[in-house]
Amino acid sequence: MWGGRFAAGPSAIMREINASIPFDKALWRQDIAASKAHVGMLGAQGIVSAEDAAVIAGGLDAVAAEYEANGVPENWDLEDIHMTTESRLAELVGPVAGRLHTARSRNDQVATDFRLWVRDAMDQAEAGLRDLQVALVGRASEHADSIMPGFTHLQTAQPVTLGHHLMAYYEMAQRDRSRFAAARTRINQCPLGAAALAGTGFPIDRFRTAEALGFERPTDNSLDSVSDRDFAIDYLMAAAQCSLHLSRLAEEFIIWASQPFGFVTLPDSLSTGSSIMPQKKNPDAAELVRGHSGRIVGCLTALMITMKGLPLAYSKDMQDDKPPVFEAASLLALSIAAMTGMVAEATFRTPRMRAAAELGYATATDLADWLVRQANIPFREAHHITGSAVKLAESRGVALDALPLADLQAIDARIDDRVYSALSVEASVAARASHGGTAPAEVRKRVTQARIALGLEE
Ligand code: ARG
Predict the structure, then answer these.
(1) End-to-end distance of the chain based on CA atoms, in angstroms?
(2) Among residues 49, 178, 258, 274, which one is catalytic?
(3) For the whole model, what pTM was predicted?
């Protein structure tokens, strides 16, 4: 394709290091679509004749049909998907194929193809996250009243509801969706027509190609157009943040499925056995989601560091933009699907959760709050009195509400028997009805809002 200036061909090493076809063949659909948009515009502008444009467009369809049927051939001499397609086009339609590359360069071509691919990946991530939210909301409404220990420092803190805990991940997924949606608005400008770096002298119509490819408009600076990979980094940043959330959710399931916790039985379909220990059921899918997030963050780091020192405009380093994006996209899609299945199909062992909530003096704050409200004691003092009650209960190995009134009154005479109504885990969660609190009524309210936002109810 560029033989004119060269006396000798590339060495074997040059061919190998230069070839991107092993991975950028994944862009073939985008490459064909962008070429068709380009040649349609060239024909409409009279830059190539209408007949030639039609022959080229027909040839591109034929190449696409071959790729669909047999895959994309991998010939390192043809470097990348752009030259592979153009060379096959020439075999099919003859020298007229050479007119396709008028007023364009592989630099704007790859920027266009890659934007189209990443735009789809953004849409897929958003759709996957929506499915995850549907699963979360379904289980949350089922368990709006199921009481479990809430933790800080992974120490029992206050009782919460399982529905509330699951809805926390709904909120994370909502922010992830908004990050992908925001990235999508920025990606949606078309670099095609920026040519190698400076634009072109041919009378092209960039608005026409932008529209044909579903972009909002063309990009506004040719140098930026061919050297910008912000859109890929935007995607990877959203993917990395999303994978952190998925990893945290996975970690919850791993902990909850452990025997000492016993809060959840994982679906058989997302667990594995051990080859040596017959009793084992391992949370491998969740562990791999946790592991994959490390790889996805690595993909983001890889591309950021590839880009950080590049002067304008295109440099070949930028060919390395694709593997981390492709890798992250497939890891993310799998991770979202795995966690969606886990949430939808896990069996929550709510009696175990409830018993654990009752064990850890989780209602101590309720005793302190009661002292503040009923006896008008300053919170700091109430905190101290409650600490003494917990110490006493601990020394006897009983729950707070199992301490006789006389013993509580010996700690502070202002306590009376109404306190017992505040000490149950039900009373504790029901009391936390502040906006966004764990009270079942609040959880149901948020679940309803979420169902409406997801289009599951009016
Ligand atoms: N395969 C190249 C890439 O992915 C296409 C652009 C090549 N441009 C160039 N000036 N050599 O970056």
Answers:
(1) 58
(2) 274
(3) 0.94
